[in-house]
Amino acid sequence: GCVQSLEYKYPYDENSLDDIQAAKNEDVLQNQFLLDATFKGYYSTETMEIVDRLVAINNGQLDLRDEDFEVMKKAAILIDYMGMNYYQSRFIQYYDGENDIHHNGTGEKGTSRFCLKNVGRRMEKEGIPRTDWDWLIHPESMFDMLVRIRQQYPNYKCIYITENGISCNDVISLDGKIHDAGRIDFEERYLAQLNRVIQDGADIRGYFYWSLMDNFEWSEGYTQRFGLVYVDYRTGERIPKDSARWYQ
Hints:
alpha/beta, four-stranded parallel beta sheet, 6 helices, globular
């Protein structure tokens, strides 16, 4: 099997044809390009039309080789499962300006920017809560992604949720414990959607919370705490959070 990191893409204005196309643009780049290769072993006509158009607009080149497709076709029928890392969704607006990307490496709310020329601009959506690290809390989108995979790629065999979790500003309370009610609420919401999609007929074989312990994150170092177990980075002490007992 393999693992893909996916995010459901919604049009910022569901009544705008431009926003609908922008959402599809980013979906193809992040999701469908990977899913086609995983389950089909080739890229669909829709995928290639969008990719070719975006490459041409941005004066790029795409190097696709016959020998690579031969390997992809063989691999697609051998995949026993797909792992899905899932954290959040995106709302995409039409955008024709220049590329403007700023990665939020501090957690400061509203500082992230992701605008790709002729692809789309990621927007904040009113009414959807966000984590301490300013990521969307949108469990319904995980349901939508799993339904989409089941419908668009009916030859899939099964799926494992290989990562899903939330970074919180965890602190040790006076009683020596970490009371992370927000993480428990997050888990309840996402697991409810997972149960819903299983009842809907999706073949989900397992779920892995990210992560067991607080750890080093790729671009944020030790500033984000995803763990069910608190780690004191000075002493190495490990303290199970309330969420660890709930998850157990």
